[in-house]
Design goal:
- Pathway: Metabolic intermediate biosynthesis; acetyl-CoA biosynthesis; acetyl-CoA from acetate: step 1/2.
- Catalyzes the formation of acetyl phosphate from acetate and ATP. Can also catalyze the reverse reaction.
- Keywords: ATP-binding, Cytoplasm, Kinase, Magnesium, Metal-binding, Nucleotide-binding, Transferase.
- It catalyses: acetate + ATP = acetyl phosphate + ADP.
- Its main location: cytoplasm.
- The chain is an alpha/beta fold.
- The chain has 2 domains: 146 residues, Nucleotidyltransferase, domain 5; 189 residues, Nucleotidyltransferase, domain 5, CATH 3.30.420.40.
- Helix content is 37%, strand content 19%.
- The strands form 2 sheets. An 8-stranded mixed sheet has the order 5-4-3-2-1-6-8-7, sandwiched between helices. Strands 11-10-9-12-14-13 form a 6-stranded mixed sheet, sandwiched between helices.
- A hairpin with a 3-residue loop joins strand 9 and strand 10.
- Helix 1 packs across helix 3 and helix 10 packs across helix 11.
- The protein binds adenosine monophosphate (AMP).
- Adenosine monophosphate binds next to helix 10 and helix 12.
Amino acid sequence: MTATRVLVLNSGSSSVKYQLLDMRDSTRLAVGLVERIGEQGSRLKHTPLTDGGGTRERSVAIADHAAALKAVAEELARDGLGLDSPELAAIGHRVVHGGQSFTEPTVIDDAVLAEIERLIPVAPLHNPANLMGIRTARALRPDLPQVAVFDTAFHTTMPESAARYAIDVATADAYRVRRYGFHGTSHAYVSRATAALLGKAPEEVNVIVLHLGNGASASAVRAGRCVDTSMGLTPLEGLVMGTRSGDIDPAVIFHLMRVGGMSTDEIDTLLNKKSGLIGLCGDNDMREISRRIDEGDERAELAFGIYIHRLKKYIGAYCAVLGRVDAIAFTAGVGENAARVRQAALAGLEPLGPAVDADLNAVRSDEARLISPAGARVAVAVVPTDEELEIATQTYALVDR
Ligand code: AMP
């Protein structure tokens, strides 16, 4: 029997998201989520997609990632999709930070694990959780290939001029301070899907990808290779996000320490959790902000204005970086759903080439689609991202069959 299934695991500090896919036709067999691992009220939500069995939700004590994966394995086994099946070809893991070491998906061995561990200082929140997921999965199926797919890998093609901060080189190198970028799996998938939408190969087009979710980032992709992206050493840099400030004068931090008496941890929390849309108007959900704007709420309008202003600046900058732009693609929760954001972000940019057809922009759909009028110099696309499918595809490509 040929093994054609891939399990994709996205392990966070207190959650594990998973999908089981059949790579013969890229169909999903099951999806699910374990939440509040090691906390009160942990629970598992599992949806088999094979025979329309419906979602099963259980509240169970789940002490750690090992218990979480065991519970997932039990649920999958109930649907005849157990992890001991010979049809399972590999497990693909989302790993947030691959630093400069990992430029592509990598089959995991002890040396790879050690290198992911060595990168913990630049990704203290994410890499430890990813490692727990990998170790647990390896213990469960030591015989199975496990592949790490890195959020940073797609951005390792950035030239030094984009990847380096203008600070003392020796200091930067000693502490590995440089711009790594994140959401790379999504930027890779969406830039390729946009080329396909234009009927072209990725090597033939230059694309600006706007990944606008609760976290948000932009990238400039020339001929299929990333040449710039808005996130940096951490996912804090760049666009205004749900709860993160994005770009800020670093001296704001010194000011808050010296004049405001704030600690490093307080400022970290301020900029990562209490800033962006939520800091500006108290809401980080674009649906709610949109509703408030319609009711004439000035704070919501200001927050939206700041969000759009930053987005426009990045679009303009990446037009300059790329020189020739063939398409601008919107993706993730906000990018795929908020017609108002797409319209506002490109309003007034017609001299640079992009144009939005109001009727096409208003259509709601799960399909990748163009929303620019025929003949626009720069096509505008909405492309639903699919990071799990991309991780599964990259994982499956590395498996001997
Ligand atoms: P993500 O991080 O990609 O899951 O995106 C989550 C964000 O997408 C939410 O916080 C919302 O702001 C936004 N979102 C989801 N659905 C809609 C919608 N129908 N209209 C506007 N924004 C939406």
